């Protein structure tokens, strides 16, 4: 982030604009939306500036710029046609530690002005750092169309009740819960419909009702999908944005973690650098303790929490401890990997059933119902099977699948570093070793794998 976004209090902000043409007028009009004092200096002025000066909204000094014009100013816009003069003013302002912006000349800008969506008191400011102005305009249009103008009313309503709510709830967390309830519910709806007095009545009622707030937390068991943040569900995202604490494991991608509420505490319980995992019963206990302490806890798991995710065990403990919870499904690795590798899990000509199995190796073997897995016209997906690949291939052949049966390994499915290796039960181990496939990787066995040649669409894949 090259530019740090901040909002500056303009109550006692003295700004100088050098130049008084149309470009300067646009800056002046923007500044006049605030309480800043605006002085313009230029030998001549356009009609807009003359009018603003006549209305005493700006101070117009009609002469050439002089260095002492910078005195007592904190922000300077330079908008003259003289590039040499612009550069000089930039130098002089910079030497005095005054923030200066030479309009349309990014290298001579100590600050840049963002694109603004104005729903005062709510202001959304966006910037591309000058590198993608069209994209920025496009995003602004989108926001303008989805954020109702009446959000302003909601902002004013919040301001009006801010102190009352603060006095009513002594902890930041309780205040946040209360406001989230208000903004998600009927009160906000009434404000947006312009029914101010009804909304105020409801707000007072709500403040009285919440008098005996139990302060109990809740656990959200959330499936984060296979890695691509675009594959999160809306519900997952909404709960992630509400969380006080997030307990996450190894398969949750960095990009997804960035979508969690910024102030939430993040606790990692996957394999640490020491290669130790937090034991499952400790995780179960941790979730219960955090919720009983009044937190909204998001337990974020890769894929779907109920598919090889031990989500069931975690909520069994919550039930025992009387902690309330919700479960949010996620896209499991098999769906993500199959889609992004162009391998349909079922197909009328290839597979009439699909089986998900664990390929986890214990004492050099995998305890599975092999005759059931080695069926023709079936797709079998193995999770956690990379290390056990030799055993999987050998067992499937032993139980009747031809050595020529197609098989695919998909590493880091749905992510930019996705790699796919295909082969058959007799040559796949060598191909996987050559490609250097690393965990997490998923195995798909069955003739559906042959469809990849035609259906592969995800171009990052190998
Ligand atoms: C403990 S299981 C968790 C499965 C998860 N609950 C799900 O529904 O996808 C971990 C295994 O899932 C598979 N896996 C998860 N994410 C993956 C990804 N992005 N690419 C390939 N395999 C993945 C791998 O086989 C990995 O060893």
TrEMBL record:
Q: Which InterPro entries match?
A: 4pyrrol_Mease (IPR000878), 4pyrrol_Methylase_sf (IPR035996), 4pyrrole_Mease_sub1 (IPR014777), 4pyrrole_Mease_sub2 (IPR014776), CobA/CysG_C (IPR006366), NAD(P)-bd_dom_sf (IPR036291), Siro_Cobalamin_biosynth (IPR050161), Sirohaem_synt_dimer_dom_sf (IPR037115)
Keywords attached to this entry: Cobalamin biosynthesis, Lyase, Methyltransferase, Multifunctional enzyme, NAD, Oxidoreductase, Phosphoprotein, Porphyrin biosynthesis, S-adenosyl-L-methionine, Transferase
Q: Name one Pfam family in it.
A: CysG_dimeriser
Q: Which residues carry this modification: Phosphoserine?
A: 128
Q: What are the catalytic residues?
A: 249, 271
Q: Name one GO molecular function term.
A: uroporphyrin-III C-methyltransferase activity
Which reactions appear under catalytic activity for this entry? precorrin-2 + NAD(+) = sirohydrochlorin + NADH + 2 H(+); uroporphyrinogen III + 2 S-adenosyl-L-methionine = precorrin-2 + 2 S-adenosyl-L-homocysteine + H(+); siroheme + 2 H(+) = sirohydrochlorin + Fe(2+)
Q: Where is this region: Precorrin-2 dehydrogenase / sirohydrochlorin ferrochelatase?
A: 1-203
Q: What does this protein do?
A: Then it catalyzes the NAD-dependent ring dehydrogenation of precorrin-2 to yield sirohydrochlorin. Finally, it catalyzes the ferrochelation of sirohydrochlorin to yield siroheme.
Family, similarity comment: In the N-terminal section; belongs to the precorrin-2 dehydrogenase / sirohydrochlorin ferrochelatase family.
Entries under HAMAP family matching the protein: Siroheme_synth
Q: What is this protein called?
A: Siroheme synthase
Q: Which organism is it from?
A: Paraglaciecola polaris LMG 21857
Which gene name belongs to this protein? cysG
